[in-house]
Amino acid sequence: MKTAQIVIGLGFGDEGKGITTDFLAKQNPESIVIRFSGGQQAAHTVMIDGKKHVHSSFASGALRGLPSYYGEHCTIHPVFLFNEKEELEAKGGNVELHIHPLAKITTPFDVWQNRNNVRNLDHGTCGKGVGATMKRNEGQYKLYAIDLIAPRQMLLEKLQKIAYYYGFLNESEIDAEVDHYLEIIDQIKWNISDYSFLEKYENLIFEGSQGILLDMDHGVFPNVTYANTTSKNAVEICQKLKIEDVEVYYVTRSYSTRHGSGWMANERELKLKNNEEETCVYNDFQREFRTGDLDYNLLNYSLKLDAAYSFNAKRNLVVTCMDQLEQDYEFEHLTTEFKEIYGSFSPDSKDFKQITSLFQ
To answer: Which processes are annotated in GO (biological process) (predicted)?
Structure first.
């Protein structure tokens, strides 16, 4: 029977989805890892035997040796993809990547839009063009993965029209951006595959993006992401493939985090240790990386919300960064807070202890 494992962040992102995905990849080496939301703005850090990689355009099983798949709700930036491909190859990672024909393609003009407009609205952005790409694709100026293998003149026309859409009128400037962009596209072997490609795998690992509290339908506006960060998209893919054995791994740090602007519960500056490899630090676009104490009611909200999309799935709670607080983390207190959330949640189970102890 085919099985699926879905990794979901319970907070505002940065919970540890990358290392959780890598853990599942190690346990299931014959799997493929599927990104089903977000895109090149991900910063999912994995470290194996001293080798570290921050996964963005490849799923977090790549350093472990697993292939990647990007679904139709994801975005791809060819230049960022090419650069990460070279980094992964140098580390011996797996750069096999398959992309759904309807995945959205980011252009240099989308990146420009994100970096020069959204930031000024105090919304916050990763500066990678994801939000602009998704918004543009709601109108007539669409660009999909399938367009990357279309006749060159057709692709060229679409890119020029996208430049005009954003107000670029300098022909020489447009040509320079497009020429470099097309040069990179030509250096990549594009594996465009619909969901039927996934039927060859007995186990699928779905790697989420950001966290439930940033979901575009459920987060606190306007500081949300342009994606469904619940299990919604992953569950829909499982339904298309008729996979009934689905397990969700809900991830939280032992404290709460938020990178950038927006509402956050229990915010305070925590004195952390053992986090020298922290990927999420201040940058010009997202700005501050914020911390606070866990709000159990808010985590409960996220769990119950996601149950609306994954009500038939088995559930696991993954707690990361348990060694980063100055005081020993009260693990028993955490499990007590969650004991009534789901009947299937069992902190005494062997699997639960195996997962949580991994991050202590």
So the answer is: 'de novo' AMP biosynthetic process; IMP metabolic process
